[in-house]
Each structure stands twice: as C-alpha cells, then as structure tokens.
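Memo to structure team: turn this sequence into structure tokens by end of day. - J.P.
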Amino acid sequence: MPFYDNYYDYINEHLTSSVSIPISYSGIVNITTNARVDKVIFNPPATIVYVNGKKYVSKVHDEEFDEEKGVLMCLAKAQGITHSELKRLIKNAKRSK
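Reply from structure team:
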C-alpha cells in the first residue's frame, strides 16, 4: 500500500467509479466519483474541500470536530447530496442485530 502525503492524493486515486445509493423508498441518488479533489483544508470547526476548482465547506455544530466526517460531508455536497438526505439514509438503514 503506497504512502500518501495528503488526503486529496488518496481520494483522487481511489475514487474513480460511480455508485448508486438508495436515499429513500422513492428514489436513488447517483454518486459519480470522477471529480478531482484539488485541496483539503482543516480549519476547526470547518473543513474546506476544493473539488474541480469549486469550494465546499462543512462546519461542526454542537459536536466534536472530525476531519474524516468533514471531508466526507464536503464530498457529498459536491455530489449534490444534502444533509437531510444523508440523515434519511442513515435513519432508514437496516441494522444487524
């Protein structure tokens, strides 16, 4: 496994496909991961990710700052997925017992 100096090199190498995620019983959100991550900046409480030259920001509200969650939220925003859609996905997920 190669060593990566930063998040965006890792992301750009590993996110090269397209997947579909069921968001609700009535729809599908398509995620295309061929976008180019240009830069990642951590400035607590915010995470800033530049994707194809466009800036996406995720801020922490009433919880501990988490770099990974911030990057993933910015990538979701870059795909047009809203926070409420993600919450619905998690709420409707099947749980193993």
